[in-house]
Amino acid sequence: MRRRFKNVIVELRPSKIDPKGVGVFAITNIKQGTKIFDGIYLEDFNNLISWKIVKNLPEMTLQKINAFCVGTPKGFFPPENFDFNNLSIEWYLNHSCDGNIGFNKDGDFIAIKEIKPNDELSYDYGLVESNPKFKMLCNCGSYNCRKKITGNDWIKLLDDPEKKKFMHLYLRSKI
Ligand SMILES: [Zn+2]
Fold first, then answer.
1. Residue 148 forms beta bridges with which residues?
2. Strand pairing of 120-123 and 94-95?
3. Among 30, 48, 96, 148, which lies 20 to 30 A Cα-Cα from 70?
């Protein structure tokens, strides 16, 4: 069997954006437009887990869903095998109001700027989050920081051509 390692371009480190959290960092130059991670595909939106089931879940599972899972009004995307003990690296991408990654038309995560070694990879959660109950405070330090991030931000972001360009097709196609 032939084994070929992929080039290592990212790793997990203590986040610069979330002081208590972990983040994804570039360890090499990443050119604008490069696909970095598999993303969220349109058909995945047909396989959401309904919010109705969450009230029966253990508290720790709920915390993980709130911290990690992208949601819509109907439900959320579960981790692979429903296992929060085994998250792949893209699950640790933090929000930034001026993120350096976004979605291509297939729903994959791509670099939307030139990324340098030691840059933290982040994306604007408003590019895909649409759960109207989602809320978080932001302290990303960007000039355009919205401070309060919600699951309705995508509606406003559609007015910004730069944001719209890298928004998930699912949300762009809802309008
Ligand atoms: Zn911010």
1. 137
2. parallel
3. 30
Q: Which two structure tokens, joined as six digits, stand for 129?
A: 């989050």
Q: How far apart are CA 106 and CA 134, in angstroms?
A: 24
| Cα 142 to ligand 1 centre (Å) | 6
Q: Which residues surround ligand 1, an ion (CB under 5 A)?
A: 97, 138, 140, 145
Please tell me the distance between residue 60's alpha carbon and the centre of ligand 1 in angstroms: 26
Note the pLDDT tens digit of each residue in 68-89. 999 999 999 999 999 999 999 9
Q: Is the pLDDT at 5 greater than 70, yes or no?
A: yes
> If you measure from the C-alpha of residue 145 to the centroid of ligand 1, how many angstroms do you get, rounded to a whole number?
4
Q: How far is the CA of 104 from the centre of ligand 1 (A)?
A: 22
Spell out the alpha helix ranges (H) of the chain: 59-68, 153-157, 161-165, 169-172
Give the strand pairing for 148-150 and 135-137: antiparallel
171 neighbors 130 (Cβ within 8 angstroms): yes
Q: Output the CA 3–ligand 1 centroid distance in Å.
A: 41
- Domains of the chain (ranges, CATH numbers): 10-172 (2.170.270.10)
